[in-house]
Amino acid sequence: MKFITLAKVRPGAWARLAHDLPAACYEGMKSAHVVYGQYDVVFEWEAKDLETANKIMKHMTGSDLLTSETLVVASTLKEFGQI
């Protein structure tokens, strides 16, 4: 399962982000990018199943460092075009 998480860093949390984000949040992490616009960080990550994904999300949202919206990746654009 592939996921994209769009996150907003809470005020005052930038300095703590790299150190205090639970290690469980990095499980399956493919990339993390600082972005400009409505969100501050975009995470691309994978989990072997929904139970694992739920555990990662609980750690991420429980950290009090971020607010987020997570999207499940349905397919690549190329795969979608072949349907």
Automatic annotation (TrEMBL):
Domain of life: Bacteria
Identification of the protein by name: AsnC family protein
